[in-house]
Design a protein that fits this description.
One of its GO terms (molecular function) is ATP hydrolysis activity. Helix content is about 45%, strand content about 15%. By secondary structure, the chain is of the alpha/beta class. The strands form 3 sheets. A 5-stranded parallel beta sheet has the order 2-5-8-1-9. A two-stranded antiparallel sheet has the order 3-4. The site of adenosine-5'-diphosphate has 16 residues, from helix 2, helix 8 and helix 10.
């Protein structure tokens, strides 16, 4: 069973969206539990999940499928989206705004009440099986004006915002995920809270829950707290030596 610690009403909301065959959009910074949540909900609903990490080279064929050449000539291979449509599974597109516009166009007829997927290459028009659900996520922090999702796309989705959990919740997550004791979990969450408050540094992203868990892993393997924090929490946040040193001051103050 996948462990997921809810932060609000997201479980009920996702379930209600699933019951009504509505697609879901999850916004939130990296490492705050979006992927874990989708995996957990898929388990709860008893549906398979196909996850695609989107990037700017992702083509519609990567999602829908392509003809391949085998020993007996060419044959068609479904992409993850098509598989999910046929099987009634969840298709989760992580960082969907990274994908090219022509890629997201195939999502439109699937995201409204038509629930269909035209496959140009084979001439098929697939009707999504009952359990099919489209779930997309994106990180508003990375979003450039150019790449932002179009309103016509966004308005098709039930949307939820994720953020770093409240300290008490995050402590439970860090403890359960890493197996560390509650005192260390609290210390790591305190550190993250302090780091997240630092606004004057040009950080692209704040320290995520994922980084806290990695730090606890390293400490469990015998690294000193300061070394573990540097390697798993501070260095991943910035390449700038001055910033790294400033963030390390926060670590020295707490460990
Ligand atoms: P995202 O998809 O938002 O980038 P993930 O879902 O991969 O982030 O979360 C990163 C890690 O943080 C997970 O592997 C998990 O260990 C932990 N995590 C974050 N939030 C939660 C949560 N609410 N419940 C359980 N684990 C969580």
């Amino acid at each position: 069973m996948t462990f997921y610690q809810p932060a609000g009403n997201e479980v009920e909301l996702f379930r209600a969206a699933a019951e009504n065959s509505l697609p879901v959009l999850i916004k939130g910074p990296t490492g705050c539990g979006k992927t874990r949540f989708v995996r957990y909900m898929a388990e709860q609903l008893g549906r398979p999940v196909y996850t695609v990490a989107c990037h700017d080279d992702l083509t519609a064929s990567d999602l829908v499928g392509r003809h391949l050449i085998g020993p007996e000539g060419t044959y068609w291979q479904d992409g993850p989206l098509t598989r999910a449509v046929r099987e009634g599974a969840i298709c989760y597109l992580d960082e969907v705004v990274e994908a090219r516009k022509d890629t997201t166009v195939v999502l439109h007829p699937l995201a409204d009440d038509r629930r269909e997927l035209p496959i140009e290459r084979t001439g098929e028009l697939l009707q999504a099986a009952p359990g099919f659900m489209l779930v997309v996520s994106y990180n508003p922090g990375y979003q450039s004006l150019l790449k932002g999702m179009k309103p016509s796309t966004r308005q098709r989705f039930v949307s939820m915002s994720f953020d770093y959990p409240e300290p008490e919740v995050e402590q439970v997550i860090v403890q359960k995920e890493s197996g560390c004791d509650s005192a260390l979990a609290k210390q790591l969450v305190d550190l993250a809270t302090s780091l997240r408050k630092l606004k004057d540094h040009d950080l692209e992203e704040a320290a995520s829950t994922r980084l806290l868990i990695h730090t606890a892993y390293l400490m469990h393997s015998g690294m000193s707290p300061v070394e573990a924090c540097r390697a798993a929490m501070i260095e991943p946040l910035s390449d700038d030596a001055v910033t790294v040193n400033a963030l390390m001051e926060v670590v020295y103050a707490l460990f």
